[in-house]
């Protein structure tokens, strides 16, 4: 819990989430134009509400984990500001930073802090940024519903499955624990551009990026859902929101935490830090120049940090920031504090 609290101090809606995933599969281009067609959410806005005076485009890319939050925020923001267009892409935390540091986007979503080499890339391009925590998440390990043996796993057992040394050698569940059955072990997880991959490998293997390579990797978490659901010995991991959306098809696995207790992922255990070490903060990064010179970017950043919009975080399946942490995040943006480590 202490470790979790040190990392920051941070949930969207099922129907909207399903909508998000369909968009994600199409490379996630969010747009709600202000034209007023029957399918345009802006058409529901009264003339008074629509007269916000804010207009223009906002370019966002990055983490698939953070995507449902951005999508929910963008949808509501565009209803309130129908002359704006918010485009949210999904290329993973690493892929997002590549675009962000090349000046192609205003905001980059990330499920891990920006890396030093990415900071250097931004510095080289003259891109100044503000790091902003937006929510808490818990990486969730899932198995096929037929799996009745892996109720609680230790980090050591996860290491036995996922470490680079396991590649080509650990292929059955009973190699992880002799009490487990002689059942083929098939693994599914995020690709190497994913912040979830970075965080998971750091916690499980002790080194960011250290993972066996012979598993089904995808930046589309729905591929992981489908793979585990159709494989009796399958195991996969992704953000909590995707488990919550698919809990009728999958089983979550308890994780033995630092206190030696088996803890299941839930909004409560993620929020109180007992679901460790798999609880983590989520971020977005905004270009300082874009925040200062583009009213629509400033308005959207401020919208995401408005406590009244915390409901959108929760409906996306994540955990909102505590009040003090949200206040610190807002203060950091308002004061223009640059670089990493916002709290």
Q: What would you note in describing this structure?
A:
The protein is an alpha/beta fold and 343 residues long. It has helices at 2-7, 14-25, 47-50, 67-80, 92-101, 116-125, 155-162, 195-205, 221-229, 240-245, 267-271, 288-293, 295-304, 310-315, 323-334, and strands at 56-62, 84-88, 107-110, 129-138, 140-143, 152-153, 186-189, 216-217, 234-238, 251-252, 254-256, 262-263, 279-287. Strands 2-1-3-13-4 form a five-stranded mixed beta sheet. It is elongated. The model is unreliable at 1-49 (pLDDT under 50).
Helix content range: 25-40%
Can you count the beta strands?
A: 13
The biggest sheet, with number of strands, parallel, antiparallel or mixed sense and barrel status, is: 5 strands, mixed
Q: How would you sum up the global shape?
A: elongated
String of helices and strands:
HHHEHEHEHEEEHEHEHEHEEEHEHHHH
| Quaternary structure classification | single chain
Please give the order of strands in the largest beta sheet.
2-1-3-13-4
Indicate the mean pLDDT.
85
Structural class: alpha/beta
Percentage of residues in strands: 15-25%
Number of helix segments?
15
Tell me the span between the first and last alpha carbons.
16 Å
Low-confidence stretches: 1-49
Question: Which value, in Å, is the CA radius of gyration?
Answer: 20 Å
């Amino acid at each position: 819990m202490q470790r979790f609290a040190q990392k920051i101090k941070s949930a969207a809606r099922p129907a909207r989430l399903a909508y998000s995933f369909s968009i994600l599969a199409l490379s996630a281009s969010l747009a709600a134009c202000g034209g007023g067609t029957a399918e345009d959410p802006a058409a529901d806005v009264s003339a008074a509400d629509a007269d916000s005076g804010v207009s223009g485009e906002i370019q966002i890319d990055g983490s698939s984990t953070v995507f449902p939050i951005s999508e929910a925020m963008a949808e509501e923001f565009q209803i309130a500001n129908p002359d704006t267009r918010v485009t949210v892409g999904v290329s993973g935390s690493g892929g997002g930073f590549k675009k962000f540091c090349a000046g192609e986007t205003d905001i980059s979503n990330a499920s891990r802090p920006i890396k030093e080499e990415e900071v250097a890339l931004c510095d080289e391009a003259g891109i100044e940024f503000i790091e902003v925590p937006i929510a808490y998440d818990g990486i969730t390990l899932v198995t096929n519903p037929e799996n009745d043996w892996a109720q609680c796993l230790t980090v050591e057992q996860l290491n036995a499955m996922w470490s680079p040394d396991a590649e080509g050698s650990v292929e059955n569940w009973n190699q992880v624990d002799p009490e487990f059955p002689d059942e083929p072990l098939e693994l599914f997880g995020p690709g190497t551009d994913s912040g979830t991959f970075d965080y998971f490998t750091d916690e499980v293997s002790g080194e960011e990026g250290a993972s066996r390579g012979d598993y089904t990797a995808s930046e589309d978490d729905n591929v992981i859902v489908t793979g585990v659901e159709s494989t009796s010995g399958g195991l996969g991991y992704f953000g909590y929101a995707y488990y919550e959306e698919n809990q009728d098809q999958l089983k979550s696995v308890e994780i033995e935490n630092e206190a030696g207790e088996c803890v299941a992922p839930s909004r409560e255990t993620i929020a109180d830090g007992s679901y460790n070490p798999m609880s983590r903060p989520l971020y977005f990064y905004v270009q300082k120049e874009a925040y200062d010179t583009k009213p629509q970017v400033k308005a959207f950043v401020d919208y995401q940090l408005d406590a009244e919009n915390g409901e959108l975080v929760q409906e996306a399946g994540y955990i909102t920031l505590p009040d003090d942490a949200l206040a610190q995040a807002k203060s950091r943006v308002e004061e223009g504090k640059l670089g990493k480590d916002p709290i």
